[in-house]
Amino acid sequence: MPENAATTNLQNYGIQDDVAMHSESYSKHYDDDGRLKRTGTVWTASSHIITAVIGSGVLSLAWGIAQLGWIAGPTVMLLFSLVTFYSSSLLVQCYRAEHPNYGKRNYTYMDAVRSILGGDKVRLCGILQYLVMLGIVIGYTIAASISMMAIRRSNCFHQSGGKSPCHMNSNLYMIIFGATQIVLSQIPDFDQIWWLSTVAAIMSFTYSIIGLSLGIAKVAEEGTFRGSLTGITTGSVSLSQKIWRTSQALGDIAFAYSYAVVLVEIQDTIKSPPSEAKTMKKASLVSVTVTTVFYMVCGCTGYAAFGDAAPGNLLTGFGFYNPYWLVDIANAAIVIHLVGACQVFSQPLFAFVEKGVTQRCPSLERELKIPIPGFPPYKLKMFRLVWRTLYVLFTTLVAMLIPFFNDVVGVIGALGFWPLNVYFPVEMYISQKKIPKWSNRWISLKIFTVTCLIVSVVAAVGSVAGVLLDLKKYKPFHTNY
């Protein structure tokens, strides 16, 4: 039968229309990779990033500036923000391997490294990425327990009129936070925690604004700006302490800007068109700008209020006692925010482990349908329940063993900043763009990489030294605060 006759017959029977309608319906509900249509936008991606970035790290920035001083402190913060935005601009282009609109998708950071660099770098990237995620969750567990403990202590100080030392142990609060994470960890996918990220982002602004307001009020009350151009002096601390603290401050600031570890995973939630890279670059610009303004204002205000005595955690170091109810609200907001932030950093690790295990043992993918009156049955996967529960138990136990917020934050920030925020994005960009070796562009990118490596090493050394000093005087499960 001639082709035009066959086409006419198909049209007569409505077969072509059915195929076209099916194809159109398919494209409305599914993306080009066969997955359900992604719905993320600039604002949802920004919420995820802000939730991940404006975390408890903002509360240690006054302490960080106190170590560096009025000149170096804000300058270092601005430089970290520029490095973060530049490297994230390189990384967003790695989501699609060949073309920004229709190339093969890389669903995770590891997938991007695998498709562009390959070899042993994939394994190295995976180890670093998931160790940093694990470390961040441990750090956030410590921070959340400290904030919960601070609420009780502020009420204790208020009731006793400041006469009681109000010592208490953080273990109970870590257990409470861990129990909450066990429940929330059963949310199946990253896509489904957008509402949690939105709430968490609002909470981060809430406690940051409260901390800022209390700092401004204290400066106004005393009528003077504290602090010095070079930071804490060697008269207050020894020269070696000054060096370690300065190094640790770099780690704290690096931690406050770390979100590359989940950038590709966040980008995988974004709808297109326009291209995911274009949307994610806008989200990165919005997020880095907002966080830098908050960091500058909160860190500088805290330093102006307390000078060299700025606490390691602005709202729990008891620089502020009154109004106690406002401090309580701020700490409650921190806890709610960290509940969401832990999920932002945990979900990619959950997905990685579950994908690998179920590919090797498909029977673990089975679901149990639990009937709920008036609602669709809840689909429970036993492997997901057991593995995610064990993960939360592990992170909670480690947090109870090393509850040093400032030092842990510094170590995590230092270890994760260079390889994940700088090295891999630069190497993938060079490979994708086929930049000739020893060209001016290649040399400038390598200088950028080496400079950031030196900063990371210095920060890591100082932060590890801080942890070792803390461990000398700490008794696990017994030390009270």
TrEMBL record:
GO terms for biological process: amino acid transport; auxin-activated signaling pathway. Coiled coil: none annotated. GO terms for cellular component: endomembrane system; plasma membrane. Keywords: Amino-acid transport, Auxin signaling pathway, Cell membrane, Membrane, Symport, Transmembrane, Transmembrane helix, Transport. It is found in: Cell membrane; Endomembrane system. It comes from the Eukaryota. It is a multi-pass membrane protein. Residues 38-468 form the Amino acid transporter transmembrane domain. Belongs to the amino acid/polyamine transporter 2 family. Amino acid/auxin permease (AAAP) (TC 2.A.18.1) subfamily. Belongs to the amino acid/polyamine transporter 2 family. Amino acid/auxin permease (AAAP) (TC 2.A.18.2) subfamily. Carrier protein involved in proton-driven auxin influx. Mediates the formation of auxin gradient from developing leaves (site of auxin biosynthesis) to tips by contributing to the loading of auxin in vascular tissues and facilitating acropetal (base to tip) auxin transport within inner tissues of the root apex, and basipetal (tip to base) auxin transport within outer tissues of the root apex. May be involved in lateral roots and nodules formation. This is Amino acid transporter transmembrane domain-containing protein. It comes from Vigna angularis var. angularis.
